[in-house]
Design a protein that fits this description.
transmembrane helix; 16-stranded parallel beta sheet; repeat; 16% strand; 47 strands; alpha/beta; 1286 residues; single chain
Length: 1286
């Protein structure tokens, strides 16, 4: 009994102790959770802090942190928990909910029990069900302020069981949820604030990686570069950084290289396992869609991919993938996917058959595709193939029937690969056939893919003789640059065709009539089909929205429009042979925009056309014969009763008079945009003041314009560049527009003194002022002076002469950038203006941002003064500037032009203009230039010469073609993709030789530049590609040849033209010479020799082959004339072989020059002055294909690498004497004939003796000429005999 009593007492004491411990621990703050290496979370905490708002009212707040697996959601939730846990009565971190709830039937009940236990609440051993557990949580925690973290939730049921409502918890409680699926947060009945977990930035990634790889925050010595490679592979995913860093810890740099290569081929198992969790939660069809996107369609438009997948009966819905953070859609509607997620999807496919690629469902790695095609190892499991090698490859040896086993092939993409012959079989299961350069003239005989969606076959050899079969799903057809197509067959079987692209099919001459009656055709583009004379005789295309025949120079007729077409329609017919539009054009009731610029034969526009109800944009530049058409319309129509709706009219370079402008203003009263630049009128009509809708007026390059009347109050933009004849009164009219307080005023015009009524005028620094409370409404006047020239007088003259010969007019852009307290304020778009030298730009600052962006800027101001600075980006120099304050909209007490407080002096000194570097946007600047490109502005009066395709190709021809192509591509790309077509792929418009040369150029970009400026390199690469394409289009097969002069340098340093190096694409020396050219260019432009302040002539360098004569006992002097020779340690065997050949040929053909040394150099020192005329004559003769000059006095020998001069001729002295005598004789003959002409009037008065003497003299001259002719023939025969002997 006593023992029993002792046992009971002990049990009682134990219970009391446990109760005391439990009550004490409940009062203590929750223990912090342990986590290592928190990097990048402080900034995220600051962003989340206002969302959870711990100090707010009594409401319960739920925060959902979502993102793909491995992104650091759990770690961030732990960090949040540790930072705010002490502010709550109780706290619980319920981890791994997805995994634990799926472990057993009672998984959720166990989690509910854990939650209550960690909150310090007693729980029953058996709850019975999740419903009872939910009631327990609500009953015990409803009056308690708690912090609850639910980690890795993947179903709504889990959320409803653990945090079913905001009435479950006490006031000011905070519930934090982490999940991979955003839909879970959407579907919960309680409002949940969402925060997406983003990747770490580069610096955060590097620091986190280094903690795991080196146990410190920075890379170890000699590991900086390779650490960068590892970080770039991980792309900001913390899980990958941790795993890779831990795996590489303690390894050597060589082992790192090997491991990283393995990761690129086969992802790490731990990373793969975590990322696969989201994939495994997808339905079967959704898994197929995800794998298709991961393997083939990343970066493509979702609308286009959806059509392909719909035809596969996959019923795609993008929301499923977006909610699980597997895929995102950017602002352009394109599919984006993290590289590691893409690798995860591709690894799933690889594991279908690790050792045999032919048994996998999808193939994308070019080497494996080559293997399958060569070994014919494909199978019915293959559903998609993409062959897209990183460099252009030629495929010679492959099995013609390789696709025969692939009965279920849905997707076939071939890019950047050149096949020697086409397939003998293609599966009919195809939905997408994207094959650039399809090699056959026709498809295989049994090929009938009934459900095909897209035939994308640019640069193909197809002929298209047979009518299209019945293709119900065919939506897109791209036959760009197919040079074998002469006609388009019957398309009536493809009723659902939406986009039909035929640009640059130069041999296309006709369309089948069925093309004019395609019910669903939305976009038809056949630009630059230079042999096309007509489209179709009749058309009714009810869905048509874009019709393009730009640069179809032989197109003479526009089809008869059968019925009304009311869809919004744009027509592009620039530079065609159209002479008139049919009267039925009035049936195009949906026509909104038409461009018929440079249709110089266009004589009449019917009234039905001008009265089209939706026509708002008309471009008729250089259509000088249309003036009578507008006058006739004015006489026959009353504007009051029958008013056209035209809002934008471009009528440049059409020889317009003041009367013509008056007529245009009268008949188009709704004009908002009028462009009459490059015309010769002297004054604008006074009636322009009545154009109450006019917002933009462009009269640039109207060099005779003197008078400008009062402009309407609606005007917002005036362009008066290069109007040199403006009077002072006209200039004052333009200045006065600043004070009208309009929201957007952009007025570049001729330089004039800034008026005194401006609030601030300054000649120093950049525009700046101080403001507070609200951003003031101000306008700027920026005066740009003529470029400072640091060249000599003769260089100045030469530069002007070269610019004149090439036809260029200086064309400048100015970008404005707003800085507030030294920080640049960036809008969505950068704003650029076209300005000339000695011009002033007047600009209301509000044009730089949208209304919404200005609202945000205003909200950032308080009572403290802030300094406002406007930095400019241009090659022009700002000479002075002024600021005008719009007093009605600005409190003058809140703006100062001098330092408002002493402390502002220190702040301003730290923000000097030289320290304000605007963020570069080369792509937007290039896009602005192309969108606003007007060849008349740049080439002025020499435009016809630059447009001409006759005669030798000049640099101006190439630049003009480049810019026009680029501008056309921007419009075409936008129009095609707007209607669901595939995005244009890299190099899609380039022929194979252009792609090959471009790849060679990219190979030679220095690695440090490629790594530091990837965006700029890509932008410049696009420009170079367009330049190469323009050369090929103009110069045909010679467009990509490398040519450079060969110069002979004597021992006295004089230089003489000695031949040309001419290397064609495919030549064994081509790559070596191109590599050397690129190397010299990069060395110069990345060195200190290229000065941006000097003129382009100062920076001009020419790449030449230099032959140096090395006389006996003469040491080769070191080069000190700004040349770049072979790099020390640089050796190229192919280049050395070429130079050795040049040396040997030069020495054997010119023995008097002795030993020679050849090298390729970049120099600013060219031909010596005494040999300039000789060089001009030789170059011209070589262009004409002549290899001799003055008979055989100077001769050039053709070699495999070009032409080289032959100077050592045994008969050179004789030939020289002969030609000197001939020149003397010619001079004598000229003098004689001059004398005869002078005395001809008095010949009758000359005595007969003298008359006979003159006749005998003439006979002697004739005899001498005959003798010289005989001597010339004999010398020629001797030369031929000697040449055979040599």
């Amino acid at each position: 009994m006593k023992r029993k009593r002792i046992v009971c007492l002990c049990r009682y004491e134990t219970e009391v102790i446990e109760k005391i411990v439990k009550e004490t621990s409940a009062k203590l703050p929750p223990m912090p959770l342990q986590v290592k290496h928190l990097v990048g979370f402080d900034s995220r905490f600051e962003r989340v802090k206002p969302l959870i708002d711990i100090d707010s009212n009594n409401a319960v707040c739920m925060l959902g942190i979502y993102g793909v697996g491995g992104m650091g959601k759990t770690t961030f939730a732990v960090d949040l928990y540790n930072k705010i846990r002490h502010q709550f009565e109780a706290a619980s971190f319920v981890a791994n909910i997805r995994e634990k709830s799926n472990k057993s039937i009672d998984g959720l009940e166990d989690l509910q029990r854990t939650l209550l236990s960690e909150m310090g609440e007693e729980t029953q051993t058996i709850m019975g069900s999740t419903f009872r557990g939910s009631s327990e949580i609500k009953r015990k925690l409803r009056f308690k302020r708690v912090l609850l973290v639910l980690d890795d939730v993947d179903t709504v049921k889990q959320l409803e069981s653990l945090a079913g409502g905001d009435d479950w918890f006490g006031p000011r409680s905070r519930i934090i949820i982490t999940t991979r699926d955003e839909d879970v947060l959407h579907k919960h009945e309680v409002k949940i604030i969402r925060y997406k977990m983003e990747e770490l930035n580069y610096y955060e990634s590097l620091e986190l990686f280094c903690w795991y790889a080196f146990n410190m925050s920075r890379p170890a010595e000699n590991f900086a570069n390779i650490s960068t490679l590892a970080v770039r592979y991980a792309k900001g995913i913390p899980l990958a950084l941790r795993v890779i860093g831990s795996n590489l810890k303690g390894c050597s740099a060589e082992e790192w290289q090997i491991e990283l290569q393995k990761y690129r081929k086969v992802p790490d198992a731990e990373i793969q396992g975590v990322l696969e969790i989201s994939y495994n939660s997808l339905a079967d069809l959704d898994q197929k869609i995800f794998l298709d996107i991961a393997c083939f369609f990343k970066g493509e438009k979702w609308d286009y991919v959806k059509m392909i997948l719909d035809a596969c009966d996959f019923y795609p819905a993008i929301r499923v993938f977006v909610s699980k953070c597997l895929i995102t859609i950017d602002e352009n509607g394109c599919l984006e996917m993290h590289d590691l997620i893409q690798d995860m999807g591709r690894e799933i496919v690889r594991k279908e058959s690790p050792s045999n690629p032919g048994d996998r469902s999808r193939l994308w790695f070019h080497e494996e595709v080559h293997e399958v095609l060569k070994e014919d190892s494909g199978s019915s499991r293959v559903e998609g193939i993409m062959l897209h090698p990183p460099k252009q490859e030629k495929v010679h040896h492959w099995t013609f029937t390789a696709f025969k086993k692939m009965k279920n092939l849905r997707i076939l993409i071939v890019r950047n690969a050149i096949f020697s012959h086409g397939p003998s079989y293609l599966p009919n299961s195809l939905r997408l056939l994207d094959w650039k350069g399809y090699p056959s003239k026709s498809f295989p005989p049994d090929f009938y893919p009934r459900r095909i969606v897209d035939f994308k076959l640019p640069h193909s050899s197809l002929i298209l003789q047979k009518p299209f079969q019945k293709f119900e799903d065919l939506t897109f057809t791209n036959l760009f640059h197919c040079q074998s197509i002469t006609q388009i067959p019957d398309l009536s079987g493809a009723k659902n065709l939406k986009v039909f692209k035929l640009d640059k099919c130069h041999k296309l001459v006709r369309f089948d009539e069925s093309v004019g009656f395609m019910p669903n055709l939305v976009c038809l583009s056949a630009s630059e089909c230079t042999m096309l004379t007509s489209f179709v005789p009749k058309m009714y295309l009810p869905s048509l929205e874009v019709l393009s025949f730009n640069l179809c120079k032989k197109l003479e007729r526009f089809p008869h429009v059968m019925k009304k077409m009311d869809k919004p329609l744009k027509i592009h017919m620039m530079n065609t042979a159209i002479k008139e539009l049919p009267k039925s054009i009035g049936n195009l009731t949906g026509l909104e925009h038409i461009d018929m610029s440079i249709c110089k034969g266009l004589e009449n526009l019917p009234s039905s056309f001008l009265l089209l109800p939706k026509l708002v944009t008309l471009k008729i530049d250089e259509c000088s014969q249309l003036g009578g058409s507008f006058k006739k319309f004015k006489e026959s129509h009353s504007v009051a009763n029958d008013c056209p709706n035209l809002a934008s009219l471009h009528y440049c370079d059409a020889n317009l008079s003041c009367e013509d402008i008056y007529v245009l203003i009268e008949i188009f009263p709704k004009l908002e945009d009028l462009n009459v630049s490059h015309n010769g009128f002297v004054a604008l009509p006074k009636s322009i003041r009545g154009s109450f809708h006019l917002k933009s007026l462009d009269m640039s390059f109207c060099r005779n314009l003197k008078e400008i009347p009062e402009l309407p109050l609606s005007i917002q933009k005036v362009d008066a560049r290069h109007c040199q004849s403006l009077t002072l009164e006209a200039s004052n009219v333009l200045w006065s527009k600043v004070s009208n307080g309009r929201r957007k005023v952009v007025m570049p015009m001729l330089k004039s003194k800034i008026p005194e009524w401006f609030d601030c005028i300054c000649t120093q620094d950049i525009p700046h002022f101080w403001t507070r409370r609200k951003f003031p409404v101000v306008s700027l006047a920026l005066v740009f002076q003529e470029l400072t020239k640091t060249v000599t007088e003769i260089e100045d003259v030469l530069e002007d002469a070269i610019e004149s010969l090439n036809g260029f007019v200086n064309w400048h852009t100015v970008g404005l950038h707003l800085f507030i307290d030294g920080q640049e304020i960036c809008g969505r778009d950068y704003y650029y203006f076209n300005v000339g030298e000695d011009h002033v730009l007047l600009c209301d600052l509000r044009v730089l941002f949208s209304d919404e962006e200005w609202h945000d800027i205003d909200a950032s101001f308080g009572d403290d003064w802030k300094v406002i600075q406007i930095q400019y980006d241009s090659d022009l120099t700002l000479s002075n500037w002024g600021v005008y304050v719009h007093k009605q909209e600005t409190n003058m007490g809140d703006i100062q032009f001098r330092l408002p407080t002493p402390s502002s002096t220190r702040d301003y000194m730290q923000m000097q203009s030289s320290l304000l570097v605007p963020k570069a946007s080369p792509e937007q600047k290039m896009r602005h230039m192309l969108e606003n490109f007007n060849p008349r502005d740049m080439f002025s009066k020499n435009l016809p010469l630059s447009e001409s395709e006759e005669g030798p190709v000049r640099s101006s021809n190439v630049y003009l073609r480049l810019l026009r192509n680029a501008k056309a591509e921007i419009g075409a790309e936008a129009s095609a993709s707007n209607y669901g077509a595939s995005l244009k792929q890299e190099h899609e418009e380039s022929v194979e030789d252009v792609v090959q040369v471009l790849e060679m150029i990219k190979e030679n970009v220095p690695k440090h530049i490629a790594d530091s400026y990837p965006g700029e390199i890509q932008s410049v690469g696009g420009l170079v590609e367009r330049l190469l394409r323009a050369r090929v289009e103009l110069m045909k097969e010679n467009g990509l040849d490398i040519g450079m002069p060969i110069l002979l340098e004597y021992t006295d340093k004089t230089r003489r033209f000695w031949g040309t190096l001419e290397i064609k694409v495919g030549d064994p020396f081509y790559k070596a010479v191109l590599r050397k050219q690129n190397q010299l260019s990069w060395e110069f432009w990345t060195g200190n020799e290229a000065s941006t302040s000097d003129s382009w002539l100062k920076n001009l360098r020419v790449t030449i082959v230099l032959l140096k004569c090395q006389g006996p006992a003469v040491e080769e002097a070191s080069s000190s004339d700004n040349e770049e020779s072979l790099e020390e340690g640089y050796y190229d065997s192919e280049l050395e072989e070429l130079l050795s050949r040049i040396e040997q040929d030069a020495m054997s053909l010119n023995k008097s020059c002795g030993k020679m040394k050849a090298s390729i150099v970049r120099t600013d020192k060219s031909i010596s002055l005494e040999y300039v005329l000789e060089t001009i004559a030789f170059r011209r003769l070589l262009e004409l294909g002549k290899l001799t000059m003055f008979g055989a006095m100077a001769k050039f020998k053709v070699t495999p690498y070009g032409k080289i001069r032959v100077e050592d001729d045994p008969l050179r002295t004789l030939k020289t004497c002969f030609w000197v005598l001939m020149m003397v004789l010619l001079v004598l003959i000229v003098v004689l004939f001059g004398f005869i002409g002078y005395v001809g009037l008095f010949i009758c008065r000359i005595p007969p003796t003298i008359r006979k003497l003159l006749v005998w003299s003439w006979m002697i001259v004739v005899q001498i000429l005959v003798s010289f002719k005989y001597l010339y023939l004999r010398i020629g025969n001797i030369v031929k005999i000697k040449e055979k002997e040599w």
